[in-house]
Amino acid sequence: MGILVSRRPPPAHQALFQSGWFVESLFTQTLIVHIIRTAKLPFVQSRATWPVLALTAGIICVGIAFPFLALGRKLGLEPLPGSYFLWLSAMMVSYIALVHVMKQWYIRRFGTWL
What we know:
This protein is mostly helical.
């Protein structure tokens, strides 16, 4: 009989995971505002006002930069590799599409959007 040993990932990998999770969460939480504010397809059929778009872009830029800044490092975040942002882009497009499909289902089911 063997003994199962629980192995934790090295702290560097934990910090990288936390950094990725932080950036992804910030993206989804910021983009959800645009997705649920209209029954139309966000950014294509309906666009928010320039101040809202500018604030969204600013939040996303700060979120991307934060793991690279001294304060981010002080809080235990690690800079993310470039390949992460390719995957993040694919996830965000999928996220927007899925939420929009569910939003359209809701509109068909209940006859109106929130």
